[in-house]
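Class, carefully examine what follows:
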Amino acid sequence: MKKTLMLLFTLVFVLPLSACSSGSVSSINTVITKKNLNTWQQLTAQLPVVQANKEGSNQGFTIADSIGKESVIEGTVYNLKKLNVKANHAHTRVSVHVDKVINGDKNLQNKVIDLVFDGGITTTNSWYKNKNQTREADHHIMVEYNQNKLPKIGSKVVVEVNPVDLNDESGNLELLRQNKMDLNKTYNWQALGANYSF
């Protein structure tokens, strides 16, 4: 009889609590994602938009083409953050929750990783430095690259990801370090019709 009562107690009280706790984690993630979206929208809502062409070629691929590559993930964009970058550039830190590993490193499942996208918030003095520009008061602008659009917070992405090359001598690692990005969580990425490597 005691065993039956204990089992009933477990079913009646413990299972609903565990269901609530897993639901609350999901709710917190949704709440944080919405908060991040509101913050980004407030930062960018009033900014003038500058359209830019991405230099170089983009080599898109399909999921079928990606088999044998490092890792292919499906994820949800969790946050966007402005990066401090050198003149004539604009980049954004894109944090992605890995919902599913389609191919490759299964340890990425359910982790939040960082990707660097072209485009984002910068200033007119930085963006137009050493270019023929009409002088105006320095102010923030939103740079949008025609070929690599920034994803929206809450949207889904499917990308190939590769760990950042820690022997890269191009200066990109220095930029990541200056922005205090965790190199173990930061990945080069490639997606349909667009790619970007750091």
